[in-house]
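Input sequence (477 aa), recorded before submission:
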Amino acid sequence: MNYPRKASKSRLNPCLAAVQLLAVFLLFLPTAPANAQDQQTGGAVYIVQGGDTCWDISLRFGVTLDELVAVNNNLSCSSLKEGDRLLIPGLEGVNGVLTTQYVPLGESLNSLSRTYGVSTETLARLNHLVSADEIYVGMSLIIPQKEQVNPYGKRAVLSNGQSLLELAVLNNTSPWTITAVNNLPGIQTALPGDVLRVPGESGSGPGALPEVISALEINSSPLVQGQTGVITITTSIEASFSGFLGSYPLHFFSDGKQNYIALQGIHAMQKAGNYPLTIQGIFADGTPFGFTQQINIQEGRFPYDPPLTVDPTTLDPTVTKPENELWTSLSTPATTAKVWQDKFTFPAPIAFYDCYTSWYGDRRSYNDSPYNYFHTGLDVCTGAGTEIYTAAAGTVVFADLLTVRGNAVMVDHGWGVYTAYMHLSEIRVKAGDQVIAGQLIGISGGTGRVEGPHLHWEIIVGGIQVEPLDWLAYRYP
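Predicted structure, C-alpha cell format:
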C-alpha cells in the first residue's frame, strides 16, 4: 500500500539539471541482452521450488507455457532449477516476489489482504478465487511478498456505536488512513465487529479475530470422519462464544485458564469436503465479533463388514425412528460441568482389551440391504455374563430396555460428551445415579439387534458417535 507523502520544496540548480538531461540521454543507448528480471524491473516474480516444472508453474498462474517461456527470455524449461526467478506474465499491477503461504486457522480473505497489504481483488486474481468463501484451512495461497512490513498491524475491533473517527483517535491515526489500509470502500462502510488494522505491531493471534484472542486452534486439520474435533479459543478477557461446524452447533466452555473449548464429533458418513466453521462472540464490554472459515473433512476409509442377518423387527422404521430420536434427544444437551479428568478407561475387564468383533465406522448391510448403515460404536467380545464398567465419571441419563439397543445405559460426562453401553443382560444403575470411572453398571448379554452376546460401546460428542478408541488413547480436551 502506497501512502501519500508531503511534497518537498527544492530548487533545481544548473548542474543538477545537466545531470538529469544526461541520465535521460543514457536511457536511449543500446544495452547488452539482459535476464528476464532485468528486462522488467517491476512485476511479479516467482522463485522456483523443488519439483516445479514449467508446466506446473504455467497452470498455477493461469498462463500458457509459451507466454511463460517468452517473457523469461526464451527460457529453457529442461534446465529449470530450484531457486530460479521467473517473471509471471499477465499480472499487471502485481509487484514483488510471489510466495506460497498455507492458510492457517483464523484467517479470511479480508484478514490476509490487510496483513500482507494486498487487495482482496489481487489475491483473488492470483489464486483464481471466485468467492471469499473458497479460503479454507491448509489451502496453499499465492501472496506477493513486500519488502517492508505494514506498520499498521495491530488488530482493533469496531465496537457497537463506535465511529471510525473514534477508533482512529484512540489509535493515534485518521479514519481516512484506516479506510485506506483496510481496503474499505469508504469511511461509513466499517461495521461493528469488523477487525481492522491500526498503527502498532500485531500479536501472534489469528488475523481475522480481535487482538485479545491470542490463539484459535483445532486438534486436527483436516478433520476426519469419526474424529472428535476440539476447537479452542484463547483470550485475555472474559467473553462468551457460540458457533457451528457445518450444521452442528458448537458449545464453548471455559476451562478456567483463558481457554474456551468446544468439542464436536464428525459423523462417520459425513461427505468429504469443505464445511464452514462459524464462531460468534461478545466480550464483556459488549464488543461483538463474527468469523467464518472453511474446514476440510476427509474420508475415514472404513471397511465393509460381511452382511448381517437380524430380526426384521429391529429394522422397521416405525420402531427404529422413535428409538433413534430418543437416543438423539438424550445425547444432545451439553451440560456445563466437565466431570472427567483424564483418558477414558476400558469398560470391560482388561482380558478383553483388543478383543473386538466389529469396529467403529464399519459400513454395514442388514438382511441384504444396501451398505447405507455404519457401526456406531465398538463391539467388545465379552460374550454373556461379563461385568461392564463406566469409562469415566458422570450422571446416568438412561437405563432401560430398547428394541434395537437392548438393555442400554447412557452416561453424561459434561460438555456434550456421553458414553453408552448396550445389549446388556442386566442393568445395575438407574437414571439420575452419579457414577465414577470403573463403576459396575451392568452385565453383558445379547439383548436387542444382535447376532450374538457382546458389549456395544459408544462415545457420543455433540450428538454424534465418534471413534471410542481415540478416547482410550488421548486425553480430551
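Checked by second reader. Residues 181 and 432 are 58 Å apart (CA to CA).
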